[in-house]
């Protein structure tokens, strides 16, 4: 051993003197106290020591006696005291008997009692210091006969101990000063793992850090959320509580109460534990109590529980300080039943039970406490033993121990479950010393000189690196901080049979908890464990609202409808498109719906569209097959084909709209709807605009309007459609179509195209809507044009109907936004119905003519133009008088005949009335003013500059007067009356009135050959002729050039045409009507110019002379006047009849006629 420095020597001497004085003071105090309470002959406590010589000595410190409120040391402890000490002796004997381990080297022992007090343990540790310094002396120890022993202190190389962590900490602080290694077998405080404070401390048990994890894993397994902790006020208890709090907080477990009891103080009395039990009973729902302490503390707590009559109320969870010990259960088995304890993994020492059963105080003299154990175990007085506070009453009753019995299983013996750690501590020293011997002594047998000089620091290095197989067969090795491997055994204190209790292994803990829950039993009559909580767990979809700082006391608040529990204390709303699951723990995606082809909402519009496609195909086939017929040509073939394409497109859009939304489908929807409508409306707009321009131009000029040819119309249509294509391309570039989810409600999702959501769909329809409005405007503007242009009326009807359809569609579309099936079906029907209306209104009337009335599908445009030398005779079907014309003028200034509805030239009508009113004949004026007397008048009106001369025929009226007047014409506009179409053609023919003859002068200079048109044959009523009775027919020759009428003509040329019947563009089957037209004061027009080239075009067909219908009411009125009004036949004009022939009206001629009549 190396020489000590002076400071170290002085410190050692001071420790020795302090320990001696303290011991003497304690002994004197104890004796005084006991003298007043017990027999004066009792000396207690008595310091005893187990000292066995050897080449190397190991110190040992055990809790041979328990703590006591009245004495420094209490009763002897069997398991944690005597058994533990004997385990060390048993192991030392085994090592000394092993020839391969420390050959020729004997291990001695020096074992002391700490009485489970840290102060006593520190005092006893002074002997280890003295032994390490080989100091001889001391009279504190007594032999069995009371003599003072002679102690020859050998060098102590290390200490095995202590039991409790608080004692180990005190002893370790002392031993480190002298570099003396220490190995504890039961001290588990995490503080001892701090090697800066305890560099020479090691242990064969794991730290309480792992024990706290194992305990909390058990608590979590049984879902206990609210617990209490009872711990000793020591480093062991405080460190254990700290570890428990950390683990509990990490797991969300709350500690309701943390109650401590004193250690090594007179305050640790029964009253202290009684108060603890009272505090534990303040909350009925807390049923789990963790106890951190020694077996003595646990025993005292169980006695207090028994006094409080709480058997079966609490579940006790024990730390390794009292796990598997019998002392807490002695007399309190019912209170401890169901307890779950934790102890480091250990196995019973094989052969130790036989060894312990062989011990007897009479023969086993090396154990000075064996006699006390015998007396405590058998409750007797050993013969010749000294009196103690615990055996004197046996002496008074003469209860002497039987020296022939032994402590075994039959007499209540049970091996302590943690003796393996004591064995491992001794073996660790033995193997470390063996390694030192092998290192320093080489092949030298026995203790060599080099080994004697080995310091405690060097020995510590060998101890930390030691590795061996223990007596139980398990491999042992210290951790980096000198702790044992973290292996625990889980025990359950059960009533295995009626009145028989024992600790039953139910699981283990190494890297995690492995426990058989089915083996754990709370009580024999009630195997299930009670709950331990502050507040009941919340139900599904309820969050916890903490009432105080304790995280286990709360009130339950239901989460809102579309919220989930993010954690126990937070509800969070699911994002759009997600809804909570049934447990309200996660958000699930809302299923996206779209219109399936099998849905009735898809079958109905698809069926309608298929019918529309088939119908369009049939009608288109008819049109193509009859492409060269007048009806088809008059309808404008090129624009009709464009319209057919738009109708097809509209019907096919149904299948696009019903398809599952995708990027491609959405693109077709975004572009297709607007494109289809643009094709339809541009074709219709071009048609209506063409008609409007023709009639508007005719009012101002006879010049043909521009861009009315088929080629021009087609180019205009394609240009307008091109605008829609450009708009669609811009939309596709700026707002690329994608299919995205839409959620009308939280629980309803639908897959729709982005164009529907961002409004770009309506942007694409803005242009077709504008075309629709313009087309409707032109249709309304041309609603009153002549019947030959009835297609404009049909277009108007189409526009009005589509407008009604879309007005009905808009509210339905926006009110069904949450139902994608209804909404899609609605827009499909709207588009298809728009196409169907267009098809029906525009093309069905033409198909009706083509299929059912092919005789009307002819080009019937006969113009009745009577050419004579200097006059044209215009044939009319109207019966009229000055009285009727005056009445018409007074009513509404009409320029239409009130009887037949045929237009009367404004100049002629006004002239007739004015001249009759200025007549000198009273009867004539009365007739013109609507008088009772009427006369038939025949007018011949040659043009004379600004004047027209009207003369009566030679036939006299009933009064015998003749009218010859001149008058100037002033142009006025008359509003035509409304007239209805005659339903029966034959009735008109039967009621055809006689001819009114108006001769209009023409210059005779025109000599070129012109087309002669035959006059219309009038159907006279029965019994009437073209001439008056008794008057001969006049020859059909030209009047002489010196005619007084002809002499006043100026050189003007007027073309007058009359369309008798037509199957024109309207395609209607109306009855034949005659339209009287006169053009006044216009430049000459060549009837033959370009007549052939203009005949074959469709636009010429739409510029025919205007035809009107005669209503049945007008017809009846006309027939009633026939008896009073007589008109001379054409032959009475005195002019020869020219040969008549059919001619075609030129466009220019038609414009002139239109302007004159309208």
From TrEMBL:
This is Metabotropic glutamate receptor 2-like. The keyword Cell cycle does not apply. Keywords: Cell membrane, G-protein coupled receptor, Glycoprotein, Membrane, Receptor, Signal, Transducer, Transmembrane, Transmembrane helix. The chain crosses the membrane at residues 601-627, 639-659, 671-692, 713-739, 759-780, 792-814, 820-844. Residues 918-1104 are annotated as: Disordered. Residues 1-22 form the signal peptide. Residues 963-973 have a biased composition (Basic residues). SUPFAM superfamilies: Periplasmic binding protein-like I. It is found in: Cell membrane. Belongs to the G-protein coupled receptor 3 family. InterPro entries: ANF_lig-bd_rcpt, GPCR_3, GPCR_3_9-Cys_dom, GPCR_3_9-Cys_sf, GPCR_3_C, GPCR_3_CS, GPCR_3_mtglu_rcpt, mGluR.
